[in-house]
Amino acid sequence: MRAVAYYRVSTSEQGRSGLGLEAQKATVEDYIRRNGATLVAEFTEIESGARNDRPQLQAALKRATLSLATLVIAKLDRLSRNAAFLLTLRDAGTDIVAVDMPNANAVTLGIMAIIAEEERRLISERTKAALKAAKARGVKLGNPNGAEAFRRTGFRGSKIGAEANKANAQRRAESLREVLNEIRAQGARSYAAIATALNDRHIATRTGKNWRPCSVRLLMERLA
Protein backbone atom coordinates (compact mmCIF):
# COMPACT_ATOMS: atom_id res chain seq x y z
CA MET A 1 0.00 0.00 0.00
CA ARG A 2 1.26 3.47 -0.91
CA ALA A 3 -0.02 6.47 1.05
CA VAL A 4 -0.11 10.23 0.48
CA ALA A 5 -0.76 12.20 3.67
CA TYR A 6 -2.84 15.39 3.71
CA TYR A 7 -3.05 17.71 6.72
CA ARG A 8 -5.13 20.87 7.07
CA VAL A 9 -5.41 23.59 9.69
CA SER A 10 -7.86 26.46 9.49
CA THR A 11 -5.74 29.49 10.40
CA SER A 12 -2.26 30.83 9.82
CA GLU A 13 -1.76 30.89 13.60
CA GLN A 14 -2.31 27.13 13.74
CA GLY A 15 0.00 26.70 10.79
CA ARG A 16 2.83 28.67 12.39
CA SER A 17 2.47 27.13 15.83
CA GLY A 18 1.93 23.57 14.65
CA LEU A 19 -1.25 23.44 16.73
CA GLY A 20 -3.30 20.58 15.38
CA LEU A 21 -0.72 19.49 12.81
CA GLU A 22 1.30 17.37 15.22
CA ALA A 23 -1.80 15.44 16.28
CA GLN A 24 -2.83 14.87 12.65
CA LYS A 25 0.64 13.68 11.67
CA ALA A 26 0.85 11.34 14.65
CA THR A 27 -2.54 9.83 13.78
CA VAL A 28 -1.68 9.35 10.10
CA GLU A 29 1.80 7.98 10.80
CA ASP A 30 0.36 5.47 13.27
CA TYR A 31 -2.20 4.32 10.66
CA ILE A 32 0.49 3.96 8.00
CA ARG A 33 2.73 2.00 10.36
CA ARG A 34 -0.07 -0.34 11.45
CA ASN A 35 -0.99 -1.08 7.85
CA GLY A 36 2.58 -1.56 6.64
CA ALA A 37 2.17 1.20 4.07
CA THR A 38 4.80 3.33 2.33
CA LEU A 39 4.48 7.09 2.81
CA VAL A 40 4.99 8.61 -0.64
CA ALA A 41 4.48 12.31 0.15
CA GLU A 42 2.96 14.74 2.64
CA PHE A 43 0.96 17.91 1.95
CA THR A 44 -0.10 20.59 4.44
CA GLU A 45 -2.76 23.24 3.83
CA ILE A 46 -3.63 26.32 5.88
CA GLU A 47 -7.16 27.02 4.76
CA SER A 48 -10.75 26.99 5.93
CA GLY A 49 -12.69 23.78 5.42
CA ALA A 50 -15.42 25.83 3.77
CA ARG A 51 -13.19 26.55 0.77
CA ASN A 52 -12.94 23.94 -1.95
CA ASP A 53 -10.24 25.62 -4.07
CA ARG A 54 -7.24 24.27 -2.17
CA PRO A 55 -4.02 23.87 -4.16
CA GLN A 56 -2.32 21.56 -1.66
CA LEU A 57 -5.29 19.19 -1.67
CA GLN A 58 -5.29 19.15 -5.47
CA ALA A 59 -1.54 18.48 -5.42
CA ALA A 60 -2.03 15.64 -2.92
CA LEU A 61 -4.77 14.09 -5.07
CA LYS A 62 -2.61 14.37 -8.20
CA ARG A 63 0.34 12.72 -6.45
CA ALA A 64 -1.91 9.96 -5.11
CA THR A 65 -3.25 9.35 -8.63
CA LEU A 66 0.23 9.26 -10.17
CA SER A 67 1.50 6.90 -7.47
CA LEU A 68 -1.66 4.76 -7.39
CA ALA A 69 -1.68 5.60 -3.70
CA THR A 70 -4.35 6.13 -1.05
CA LEU A 71 -4.93 9.66 0.27
CA VAL A 72 -4.80 9.37 4.07
CA ILE A 73 -6.18 12.04 6.41
CA ALA A 74 -6.50 12.07 10.19
CA LYS A 75 -10.13 13.22 10.31
CA LEU A 76 -12.84 13.44 7.69
CA ASP A 77 -13.42 17.15 8.36
CA ARG A 78 -9.81 17.83 7.30
CA LEU A 79 -11.01 17.33 3.73
CA SER A 80 -14.24 19.31 3.73
CA ARG A 81 -17.59 19.76 5.42
CA ASN A 82 -19.27 20.15 2.03
CA ALA A 83 -21.10 16.93 1.09
CA ALA A 84 -21.12 17.64 -2.65
CA PHE A 85 -17.37 18.34 -2.60
CA LEU A 86 -16.68 15.10 -0.73
CA LEU A 87 -18.71 13.13 -3.25
CA THR A 88 -16.79 14.78 -6.07
CA LEU A 89 -13.53 13.62 -4.47
CA ARG A 90 -14.90 10.12 -4.08
CA ASP A 91 -15.97 9.98 -7.71
CA ALA A 92 -12.56 11.20 -8.89
CA GLY A 93 -11.32 7.63 -8.42
CA THR A 94 -8.65 8.23 -5.79
CA ASP A 95 -8.89 6.02 -2.70
CA ILE A 96 -9.37 8.12 0.43
CA VAL A 97 -9.12 6.93 4.02
CA ALA A 98 -10.02 9.01 7.08
CA VAL A 99 -8.32 7.39 10.08
CA ASP A 100 -11.08 8.45 12.46
CA MET A 101 -13.70 6.91 10.13
CA PRO A 102 -11.98 4.23 8.04
CA ASN A 103 -15.26 3.25 6.38
CA ALA A 104 -16.11 6.83 5.41
CA ASN A 105 -15.45 6.15 1.74
CA ALA A 106 -18.23 3.56 1.80
CA VAL A 107 -20.59 5.17 4.30
CA THR A 108 -20.26 8.89 4.89
CA LEU A 109 -18.90 9.94 1.52
CA GLY A 110 -21.23 7.60 -0.31
CA ILE A 111 -24.48 8.17 1.56
CA MET A 112 -26.09 10.05 -1.33
CA ALA A 113 -24.81 7.46 -3.79
CA ILE A 114 -26.28 4.71 -1.61
CA ILE A 115 -29.68 6.38 -1.75
CA ALA A 116 -29.45 6.59 -5.53
CA GLU A 117 -28.32 2.97 -5.68
CA GLU A 118 -31.31 1.92 -3.59
CA GLU A 119 -33.61 3.75 -5.97
CA ARG A 120 -32.02 1.97 -8.93
CA ARG A 121 -32.47 -1.35 -7.12
CA LEU A 122 -36.16 -0.67 -6.59
CA ILE A 123 -36.57 0.24 -10.25
CA SER A 124 -34.77 -2.96 -11.24
CA GLU A 125 -37.02 -5.04 -8.98
CA ARG A 126 -40.14 -3.43 -10.43
CA THR A 127 -38.84 -4.10 -13.95
CA LYS A 128 -38.09 -7.74 -13.15
CA ALA A 129 -41.53 -8.17 -11.59
CA ALA A 130 -43.17 -6.69 -14.70
CA LEU A 131 -41.15 -8.99 -16.99
CA LYS A 132 -42.04 -12.00 -14.87
CA ALA A 133 -45.73 -11.11 -15.03
CA ALA A 134 -45.50 -10.63 -18.80
CA LYS A 135 -43.79 -14.01 -19.21
CA ALA A 136 -46.55 -15.63 -17.14
CA ARG A 137 -49.08 -14.16 -19.58
CA GLY A 138 -47.26 -15.86 -22.46
CA VAL A 139 -45.45 -12.82 -23.79
CA LYS A 140 -42.19 -13.81 -25.55
CA LEU A 141 -39.23 -11.94 -24.10
CA GLY A 142 -35.80 -11.22 -25.54
CA ASN A 143 -34.48 -10.38 -28.99
CA PRO A 144 -34.65 -13.35 -31.38
CA ASN A 145 -31.97 -11.70 -33.49
CA GLY A 146 -29.63 -11.13 -30.53
CA ALA A 147 -27.00 -13.67 -31.59
CA GLU A 148 -26.92 -12.31 -35.12
CA ALA A 149 -26.69 -8.76 -33.79
CA PHE A 150 -23.69 -9.77 -31.69
CA ARG A 151 -21.99 -11.33 -34.70
CA ARG A 152 -22.60 -8.13 -36.65
CA THR A 153 -21.26 -5.80 -33.94
CA GLY A 154 -18.80 -7.98 -32.01
CA PHE A 155 -15.75 -6.98 -34.01
CA ARG A 156 -16.71 -3.31 -33.92
CA GLY A 157 -17.19 -3.50 -30.15
CA SER A 158 -13.76 -5.05 -29.75
CA LYS A 159 -12.25 -2.28 -31.86
CA ILE A 160 -13.99 0.38 -29.76
CA GLY A 161 -12.64 -1.25 -26.59
CA ALA A 162 -9.10 -1.19 -27.97
CA GLU A 163 -9.44 2.47 -28.90
CA ALA A 164 -10.73 3.29 -25.41
CA ASN A 165 -7.77 1.48 -23.85
CA LYS A 166 -5.38 3.42 -26.08
CA ALA A 167 -7.04 6.69 -25.06
CA ASN A 168 -6.68 5.79 -21.37
CA ALA A 169 -2.99 5.04 -21.89
CA GLN A 170 -2.53 8.40 -23.60
CA ARG A 171 -4.26 10.27 -20.76
CA ARG A 172 -2.03 8.52 -18.24
CA ALA A 173 1.04 9.47 -20.28
CA GLU A 174 -0.04 13.11 -20.40
CA SER A 175 -0.48 13.14 -16.63
CA LEU A 176 3.17 12.10 -16.32
CA ARG A 177 4.57 14.69 -18.74
CA GLU A 178 5.36 17.26 -16.03
CA VAL A 179 7.18 14.85 -13.73
CA LEU A 180 9.03 13.33 -16.71
CA ASN A 181 10.27 16.79 -17.74
CA GLU A 182 11.40 17.38 -14.17
CA ILE A 183 13.34 14.12 -14.10
CA ARG A 184 15.02 14.83 -17.43
CA ALA A 185 15.89 18.36 -16.31
CA GLN A 186 17.71 16.82 -13.36
CA GLY A 187 20.00 14.94 -15.74
CA ALA A 188 18.32 11.58 -16.36
CA ARG A 189 18.60 10.75 -20.05
CA SER A 190 18.53 6.99 -20.53
CA TYR A 191 15.38 4.90 -20.26
CA ALA A 192 16.94 3.03 -17.33
CA ALA A 193 17.77 6.25 -15.44
CA ILE A 194 14.27 7.62 -15.96
CA ALA A 195 12.74 4.33 -14.83
CA THR A 196 14.82 4.45 -11.65
CA ALA A 197 13.78 8.05 -10.97
CA LEU A 198 10.10 7.24 -11.41
CA ASN A 199 10.37 4.22 -9.10
CA ASP A 200 12.23 6.30 -6.51
CA ARG A 201 9.28 8.71 -6.53
CA HIS A 202 6.89 5.77 -5.96
CA ILE A 203 5.10 6.59 -9.21
CA ALA A 204 3.65 3.41 -10.66
CA THR A 205 2.88 2.44 -14.24
CA ARG A 206 -0.71 2.45 -15.42
CA THR A 207 -1.03 -1.19 -14.34
CA GLY A 208 0.47 -0.54 -10.90
CA LYS A 209 3.90 -2.04 -11.63
CA ASN A 210 7.43 -0.68 -11.34
CA TRP A 211 8.93 1.11 -14.32
CA ARG A 212 11.34 -0.67 -16.65
CA PRO A 213 13.34 0.82 -19.54
CA CYS A 214 10.91 -0.67 -22.08
CA SER A 215 7.88 0.89 -20.35
CA VAL A 216 9.65 4.26 -20.24
CA ARG A 217 10.31 3.96 -23.97
CA LEU A 218 6.61 3.38 -24.62
CA LEU A 219 5.72 6.32 -22.40
CA MET A 220 8.04 8.67 -24.29
CA GLU A 221 6.74 7.43 -27.62
CA ARG A 222 3.20 8.29 -26.54
CA LEU A 223 4.26 11.75 -25.40
CA ALA A 224 6.13 12.34 -28.64
Short recap of the structure:
This protein has 224 residues and is an alpha/beta fold. The protein is 57% helix and 11% strand. Strand 3 (70-73), helix 4 and strand 4 (96-98) form a beta-alpha-beta unit.
How would you write the strand order of the largest sheet? 2-1-3-4
Proportion of helical residues: 55-70%
What's the end-to-end separation, in Å? 32 Å
Report Rg.
Answer: 23 Å
Q: What is the N-to-C succession of helices and strands?
A: EHHEHEHEHHHHH
CATH class descriptor name of the domain at 2-98 = Alpha Beta
What's the mean pLDDT score? Answer: 77
Structural class: alpha/beta
How does the overall form come out from the CA principal axes?
flat
Q: Counting H and I runs of at least 4 residues, what is the number of helices? A: 9
Q: What would CATH call the architecture of the domain at 2-98?
A: 3-Layer(aba) Sandwich
Largest sheet: 4 strands, parallel
What can you see in these coordinates?
The two termini are 32 Å apart. Helix 6 crosses helix 9 and helix 8 packs across helix 9. The radius of gyration is 23 Å and the shape is flat. With 224 residues, the protein is an alpha/beta fold. Strands 2-1-3-4 form a four-stranded parallel sheet, with helices on both faces. 57% of the residues lie in helices and 11% in strands. The protein is built from nine helices and four strands. Among the domains are: 97 residues, Rossmann fold (3-Layer(aba) Sandwich); 58 residues. 21% of the residues are buried. The model has no long low-confidence stretch (mean pLDDT 77).
